[in-house]
Input
Amino acid sequence: MVVLGAGPAGLVLGNLLHASGIDCVILERADRAHVQTRARAGFLAPNTVRVLERHGLAEGLRRRGREHGACEFRTDDGRFTLEYGSLGRGEPHTVYPQQELVTDLLTRYVDTGGRIRFGAEAVAVHGARTGRPSVTVREADGRTGRWQARYVAGCDGRRGAARASLPPGAVRRHHRDHGVSWLGLLVEAPPSLDAVGYAVHGRGFAGHMARTDRITRYYLQCERGRPAGSWSQDAIWAELELRMRAAAYGPLHRGRIVQRGVVDLDSDVLEPLRHGSLFLAGDAASVISPSAAKGANLAVLEAEILARALADDLAHGDGEGLDRYSARCLPHIWRAQDFSQWMIRLLHGPSGPEGETSFHNALRRSRIESLRTSRSQQDWFAENYVGV
Ligand code: RFL
Output
């Protein structure tokens, strides 16, 4: 079994397959240090924690993760907090930086004898249709090689070799560009709010999310195409404080900006998630905009479903789970996409003809008011916000 990519999807899959006694190797393009320090997600859904616990992979997040169950909306009409951890199904998120989760998963995999090749970039997957798939790999020193396996799992993200190797027409790609971009910032400063902060402002959205006691993520909606480096530190803080309405609700803790990058919000779903003996999981299967913090959670869920199906097939000759893999994952993916789309429309104004814009903005205001006042709306929000 060959697994492409050592992100959350590939490492959960690798750990579960290895624990089931299935011979597998993970091929990862980057080096170990890079994989362990790539800061991205932070909010883990309760189901993700349960999956990791079920397989003994949750020790680190149990020790160092923090429960988080509140978000605050700030608009021209004021602010309010939703204690979503006690609404809906009454379950909070666990905040645990993705790079720490990846480090835990990698350490467990390597320490228990799992095989992984760093600096091994998959170039293409061949023969997926024939049932004798192989993967061409370019090693860090430039040499190329080929790995052969019964199955290949594409956990190598949206720009990986698995997607690129799908022949035209093999799968359908449903795609939406939300037309919105975020400047994502990682700041060396403690969180400024006890909640996730969502600021809806005429100049654009601003967001605040805790990562650790010393690190906070901020987002600023920005013009499409504007390079991340074109913002001065002063301009970033001025814009964040304006949109977060710091003058009214308290200053933000400033700190060194240790990472910045522009994310164009788009989403897609590939259907089905299987092409012969090639299976897709995580971002390789579906990209979801980070507005609702679902991507890493879906990756873990899909990896567990795929691992069980592969183990049934490879250890017991029962291929039914593999046949149903796509049908089992897609409802979860679409539900997450639906909520993410709802969040995007709530948090961002449209750009378009004046009448349309004012109509959409009035709807957004009405939706936020429902969220503030309607218990059933709050329960719906909480269930979807933490759900995968
Ligand atoms: P990853 O994590 O991208 O890992 C893929 C791995 O594959 C390697 N790779 C290759 N290896 C071999 N050959 C090739 N040809 C290869 N091409 C790539 C890469 O080096 C990498 O190691 O995919 P995976 O495992 O599917 O996991 C997906 C998640 O990382 C992603 O969905 C989340 O980070 C999305 N996301 C969030 N998700 C959440 O659930 N909660 C959050 O709070 C959250 N915040 C975020 C996010 C994504 C963000 N960005 C950068 C888009 C915040 C941000 C800013």
Notes: The CA atoms of residues 2 and 152 lie 5 Å apart. The chain has twelve helices and 20 strands. The domain at 178-265+355-383 is CATH 3.30.9.10 (D-Amino Acid Oxidase; Chain A, domain 2).
